[in-house]
Design brief:
Length: 144
């Protein structure tokens, strides 16, 4: 048994990869549906693909893709917090984050339901804001 008390020794994880549908909302909807299916099949942790709600464009810096940026917390964070509560899964959610105008990051946040998922201390002292672990560049929070 691990040093986390009642934590299971085996954690079932799922990885989701989808084809670009053409718009952000349909991508979010498709990924949420796949996450629900994974939860029904026993997944406890789910990782979405990089920049899961849009086309992958990180090899170029083109202003047309700035429309995919959003704040964290923000609209996708809210959807994923609800999904984590509904399914009881830990979610790793990559997004194109807008920290401020002109300052964007290819980042990921981790959503968890504290009472349902045992928490191990993160080696870097990961910060918690509500149910969302945020990267280190957020003011007042340490790294993931």
């Amino acid at each position: 048994m691990s040093n986390l008390g009642d934590a299971p020794e085996i954690v079932r994880a799922a990885l989701v990869q989808t084809k670009w549908t053409g718009d952000k909302q349909s991508m979010i909807d498709a990924n949420v549906a796949l996450a629900r299916r994974a939860a029904l099949e026993g997944a406890q942790v789910l990782c979405f693909q990089e920049l899961f709600y849009g086309p992958y464009f990180c090899q170029v810096q083109d202003p047309q893709y700035f429309a995919y940026t959003e704040t964290v917390p923000g609209p996708t964070t809210e959807v994923m917090c609800q999904l984590a509560k509904e399914t009881g899964m830990v979610l790793v959610v990559p997004v194109y984050e807008k920290e401020q105008e002109g300052l964007f990051y290819n980042t990921a946040f981790v959503v968890h339901v504290p009472r349902q998922v045992p928490q191990a201390p993160h080696p870097s002292g990961g910060g918690v804001l509500g149910e969302v672990l945020l990267p280190s560049r957020q003011p007042g929070l340490s790294g993931l």
